[in-house]
Amino acid sequence: xxxxxxxxxxxxxxxxxxxxxxxxxxxxxxxxxxxxxxxxxxxxxxxxxxxxxxxxxxxxxxxxxxxxxxxxxxxxxxxxxxxxxxxxxxxxxxxxxxxxxxxxxxxxxxxxxxxxxxxxxxxxxxxxxxxxxxxxxxxxxxxxxxxxxxxxxxxxxxxxxxxxxxxxxxxxxxxxxxxxxxxxxxxxxxxxxxxxxxxxxxxxxxxxxxxxxxxxxxxxxxxxxxxxxxxxxxxxxxxxxxxxxxxxxxxxxxxxxxxxxxxxxxxxxxxxxxxxxxxxxxxxxxxxxxxxxxxxxxxxxxxxxxxxxxxxxxxxxxxxxxxxxxxxxxxxxxxxxxxxxxxxxxxxxxxxxxxxxxxxxxxxxxxxxxxxxxxxxxxxxxxxxxxxxxxxxxxxxxxxxxxxxxxxxxxxxxxxxxxxxxxxxxxxxxxxxxxxxxxxxxxxxxxxxxxxxxxxxxxxxxxxxxxxxxxxxxxxxxxxxxxxxxxxxxxxxxxxxxxxxxxxxxxxxxxxxxxxxxxxxxxxxxxxxxxxxxxxxxxxxxxxxxxxxxxxxxxxxxxxxxxxxxxxxxxxxxxxxxxxxxxxxxxxxxxxxxxxxxxxxxxxxxxxxxxxxxxxxxxxxxxxxxxxxxxxxxxxxxxxxxxxxxxxxxxxxxxxxxxxxxxxxxxxxxxxxxxxxxxxxxxxxxxxxxxxxxxxxxxxxxxxxxxxxxxxxxxxxxxxxxxxxxxxxxxxxxxxxxxxxxxxxxxxxxxxxxxxxxxxxxxxxxxxxxxxxxxxxxxxxxxxxxxxxxxxxxxxxxxxxxxxxxxxxxxxxxxxxxxxxxxxxxxxxxxxxxxxxxxxxxxxxxxxxxxxxxxxxxxxxxxxxxxxxxxxxxxxxxxxxxxxxxxxxxxxxxxxxxxxxxxxxxxxxxxxxxxxxxxxxxxxxxxxxxxxxxxxxxxxxxxxxxxxxxxxxxxxxxxxxxxxxxxxxxxxxxxxxxxxxxxxxxxxxxxxxxxxxxxxxxxxxxxxxxxxxxxxxxxxxxxxxxxxxxxxxxxxxxxxxxxxxxxxxxxxxxxxxxxxxxxxxxxxxxxxxxxxxxxxxxxxxxxxxxxxxxxxxxxxxxxxxxxxxxxxxxxxxxxxxxxxxxxxxxxxxxxxxxxxxxxxxxxxxxxxxxxxxxxxxxxxxxxxxxxxxxxxxxxxxxxxxxxxxxxxxxxxxxxxxxxxxxxxxxxxxxxxxxxxxxxxxxxxxxxxxxxxxxxxxxxxxxxxxxxxxxxxxxxxxxxxxxxxxxxxxxx
Amino acid sequence: xxxxxxxxxxxxxxxxxxxxxxxxxxxxxxxxxxxxxxxxxxxxxxxxxxxxxxxxxxxxxxxxxxxxxxxxxxxxxxxxxxxxxxxxxxxxxxx
Lengths: 1275, 95
Prior knowledge:
- The structure holds two protein chains of two kinds.
- By secondary structure, chain A is α+β, with helices and mostly antiparallel strands.
- In chain A, β8 (193-201), α10 and β9 (226-231) form a beta-alpha-beta unit.
- Chain B has a single domain (5-94), classed as 2-Layer Sandwich (Beta-Lactamase).
- Chain B is 51% helix and 14% strand.
- In chain B, strands 1-2 form a two-stranded antiparallel ribbon.
- The longest helix of chain B has 22 residues, at 31-52.
- At the A-B interface, α20 and α22 of A face α1 of B.
- Chain B: InterPro entries: Longin-like_dom_sf (IPR011012), Sedlin (IPR006722).
């Protein structure tokens, strides 16, 4: 902490609380000094400040002390009056305006950094004019009537030797009429020290006259009181002073002019004069006066008696009205005398005496309720405490007291309060109590905006100087101050304060604050004509999305107004309107991978890769990819860039977001690109991009004059808060290195927004590169442009996006190569071979679809070779070039319901092109929505009566939502199974179509057409039996569909392989194909998109049976026998088939003599045993339960059966191999004609995994089922 | 201005993470920015207090809930409407 005396307040007090010398001079004196461009007072001023006057002083006590620093204040008599308030105000305003003009040129520079501010010391932070302003502010209170330190101590009477009758002039000068009114009114003591000075102008006065006048003066006024001052010794008046002593006092005149007629001797003389005047006259005079006053006051006021008297006397004055306005104390009153004593003591640096005097008078004033006087005394006490380095608390208390007392006085006291505050703040600053100082400044802001502005600004600097710095408050007070400056039209100052405030708020996320500061400073810069700076600041508020709509409109309107004023296009890097979402950046480009559509480009690379694995030739033992191939051909530096082809556009998707509530139209959005030739000028590009300077035209090639790429331009309008994904393209037209540097756009034609992509990690399709070298990620925005190549375009015509499951379509894949160079070796791979099946040759269908699928007149049963590879290779002779397009037929069948993504990838190779790229792939992606349609399920059960026949139950459910279907045809696949109807077609489905949600069950019979007993599947030799049934009746000439040939057969193959599991090997399975059509009436519109036929494939339907065997009793149904000769022996054959995969052992037990085997009904000689035997229909469920119940309670018809005897062995056991048949001969004997039910046997079976295995896995007993034999008496 | 109050929760580095204006008085156009300025300036005092007193953190249990949320990213805005209603309810209670 600095010593109080050396602190800035100490200096201020020395300047402000120092003896006043009243100067009275004649016009000729002034004239003499005006030759130097200075008045008399001004000439003397620099020499009134004595840094070490070294005068011994003794005041009240006996102690002598030496006065070091001392100062005199010289005033012309005319100036000794209370300044006019209005004039003072104007002068203050002038100070500020002048200061504002000085700072104008600094405003252009960038705002100061916060770190700089913090590292600066106090004097560097606050502008220097503040001190001057504060001084001026304090001066507005000079010569107030409640204080005494402005009272003149002495009077300097100056007369020129050129004056006529100089002695009289001296007398005249001190004429009471011409003295300041304050002295005449009795506020100030007119009896002051007088000193007489004769001025001799060396230029035009004679020394004789001067010496004569001087001697006269000395005799009249006394020897000591008279002095001679010779001046203007330089005749030419061109003296130049090295360090001009007047320069700091008078700035309005050029410094070199000041004192031009004064030589060094003259200055020395002035110096000596003032030194002598101060030390020999003023100080002794003041000393004397202090001693006198002290004595006088001690006599009247000190001691107990005097104090009581004083108190009593004061009490008597209680009823005197409170008179703060008019001065009730004249200079001669005791109170004033004490005050004078205090002030004189203060000025003579005897602070103890000053304090005791002030204390004494302070209670008096308080009792008198003379508040202004009281406050003034308190103020002085505070200062005295401070300067004498006494109690800090006391000092502050006094200042606080003074300040609040002044404030209580209202408007009249405010000025005083201000001065008091300034001193108080300085006092606090000297003690490093900056925070408190700031609050003092804040207290004295007052209502006048300009004054408040200065005070707030001073407060703000205090906050910086606090430890730790209170930057938030610093910023806030600067903003407040700036607003006040703006109110007074001090725009320069307003900008200055806001500029400093920006250093605090620069990176703030407090949006309202940021918007306010930048918007206003921008506006103000525009007012002072710095439009470019204004635009720069205003740019920061453009993304004011959190503001109200009206505010946003104001912001934008003002912004564009200012931009227009500048009259040029502004290129703004990092413009936040609209906001660019960098994470949305996606680069789509084609190297060897080309895409048929937007959708296919967005598919994940890994899907394509897995699809293309088989068809892309693997170079160098399959480990390398095209990148490595390149590395052999290209310099290493290109290795990391992506590849694109001349004439093929690179697309870039970028999302723009409008941060505002108001809609914004963005025009001319395009990419910023650079294309350099392949040579070594890569460095040049780097340099160009790194500079990023304003106004650089990037969209040019650095090496050649004309543009070697074309850019797309997009215009769009973003509504409030809207986001838009915009596609931008660049198409290189030359080989080289293409770099996408950024994006640019225009706002209302005058602002060009530029956004540079700082090589951000993007979602660009660089998976290959990623996989290969993770350590050096490629720059996704840098491309190696290679020579133009053929590019295949392809599409699948009429691909529906919505179709029913089973829908079979005929489609055409159209491929086109627009380039002149041909391509060859086309290969295609499809992600879902189950859905799409390419035709084997390029042919238009002759009969059209779907008739082409129907069976022709000649049955072509040639089986298609089923070598199904996943890659479809186009014939070798297919080569595409120029305008010719290749139309390749495709079959589409919607195999399963759901959303299906179909991926096609077509590989092709370039012919005649010497390029680093030998092949390319075309990728196509289509999305299908497959709706559920008919669902079929089959249940196959063995026929109870016939070994090779099976009963099929087909359940159909229509799962579609709205459409109904007709069923057209049911076929079994392969030649093994013949199918036949069990009921007329009409009765199956009388309504002809299956409505949505409807279910249907119908029955068929299938027959195994293989030769019984043979296990080989050599069925081809057998005459083909009926494998298809037509399920429609209306048009009989309609042919059946051919399921043996492509595409139905091949689709069936796919279905089979899809469903094929462990069942695949089982031969006892049946595959069905149901062909249906959309009912014609259901959807009259959209004829084009209607499915023609639908095929439903059901594969590997197993024959269901609970027992692992089936058997039948074969033999004659009717026999004639002559019973008269012998009983009849009938040979029968039991055929047992093992339908399981295991080894079966079966034992047959015959039962003779049923318990209720009654005697045969008396035959009437003829057909006594005849009765109707119902045909065993296929509806019968051949479950063993039914059989058992039947046996338990035989039908009545059985009871009447005549007896018969099993005449063979009663028990036979056989082993049957898996899936094989065996025959066992059995024999019965009948004794009379009749109808015999041959059901009295049981089959006991045991199933085991292995032959001769001891343990069986399952076993059971089957009852024989009815088999009727009619035996008749032969004639 | 009589009955409005502005409540802002400030995260590290003076980043406001939650703002609410409560009160019934008609909104003035510049109220929001005034509030921000005043509260921003008050941060100096808050910073001082944060070092000297421990009463700050414990008093606000419902706010801690937010900051304890593992999904909360420090420095990001609190956008939960539930939190908003809670704050406003508290404000009505105490203002």
